[in-house]
Amino acid sequence: xxxxxxxxxxxxxxxxxxxxxxxxxxxxxxxxxxxxxxxxxxxxxxxxxxxxxxxxxxxxxxxxxxxxxxxxxxxxxxxxxxxxxxxxxxxxxxxxxxxxxxxxxxxxxxxxxxxxxxxxxxxxxxxxxxxxxxxxxxxxxxxxxxxxxxxxxxxxxxxxxxxxxxxxxxxxxxxxxxxxxxxxxxxxxxxxxxxxxxxxxxxxxxxxxxxxxxxxxxxxxxxxxxxxxxxxxxxxxxxxxxxxxxxxxxxxxxxxxxxxxxxxxxxxxxxxxxxxxx
Length: 278
What we know:
- Residues 4-240 form the ABC transporter domain.
- By secondary structure, the chain is of the alpha/beta class.
- It has helices spanning 42-49, 72-78, 94-99, 114-126, 142-155, 172-189, 200-206, 224-227, 230-237, 263-276, and strands at residues 2-13, 16-27, 31-35, 57-62, 65-66, 79-82, 160-164, 192-196, 209-214, 217-222, 241-245, 252-256.
- It has one domain (2-276): 3-Layer(aba) Sandwich (Rossmann fold), CATH 3.40.50.
- The termini are far apart.
């Protein structure tokens, strides 16, 4: 069952076409990851699926409805998006940022309610931000700041969350922290999570469904073990690699070729020199 689909979708800026006649279905209740080379249209596609970019052709369907014809607040009650590197006003506290997630439920006649309080507190608790709620967002570390923004999207109480490169500029520890959080949200709440990632091995580890984009279209999609291969990596990223399996998770693991210090080859070379010296 799909929660979000793109039908005959063509996207671009001005005369430049970024995505051309693309069809895609996002599985409900799963984690989907978009992969592809720089500039291939991953972020553009994500923005279009959140109705932040008007298609040139085709359309996006959310829960069976044409997203272009839905009221803005109705879309925001069903789908939340976290753009790449969001910026908050200087001095804004974590609590006040997370409160912004309740905006789709506000109107002239509906004041802040106990339901809103509960949604904000649940979002803070889910992201382990309760103790930091009075801190200003700009005083937080990168990982904490990203958790604060994710808490804001959770306060929207949507069943679908889109994230554009949520681990960008984070060190390895914070990358895993954020991806573990999203994985737990999916496991616990059945949330549909769609995100753009650059790290193929992390994409394989956390995704149920991977979509590889090349030449303005979907090159391949499916389970990580169905999509990730030496040929796919070569065709999509113009890179030679070996594909093996992660010994801890059993998911595909890409080992890129390239220059650099290779201990195995050096050890073999030294062994060969020793053997032939006698």
